[in-house]
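Support reply, case 0932

Customer input (verbatim):
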Amino acid sequence: MKTLYIIGGTMGVGKTTTCQHLKKILPDSVFLDGDWCWDSHPFQVTEETRHMVMDNICYLLNNFLRVSAYRNVIFCWVLHEQSIIDDLLSRLNLSGVCVRVISLVCDRESLCARLTKDVATGRREPDVIERSVRRLPLYRGLQTEKLDVSAITAKEAAEWIAALP
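Our regenerated output:
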């Protein structure tokens, strides 16, 4: 039995770092960050690029799910709307796959502190703070398991996810 871990959360909450730790904890695992599927400059969000990124993600995830070498497939992306999650799941071959959909959430103060550090080191642009904070409340309404990462490390979050039954 394979497991597909779909990890969502607003920008700066720690998705990528958590998933990198999870990849090392879980046996026979592979990791895809949705952002890698449309890493362009300038970054453009249009109907065409949205369609393309979803096609890219589903193509790669279906390939990972098909390959016998991988028992654990880990995917992360912002995933702030239920319709995005539903569309993604509808395009995947999930026969024999246990699916875990998890949203990483945190309080506003923790998020701002993380993003401020990223801005100071040049990893992110300053406008990300406002955009990310605006998305925080959207995760409450999603049909996902929630993990509050306000006071835990990415490694602890990965350990929590790996321990799910």
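We compared this against your earlier run and they match. Two observations from our side: The longest strand covers residues 97-105. The chain has a mean pLDDT of 96. Please reopen the case if you see a mismatch on your end.
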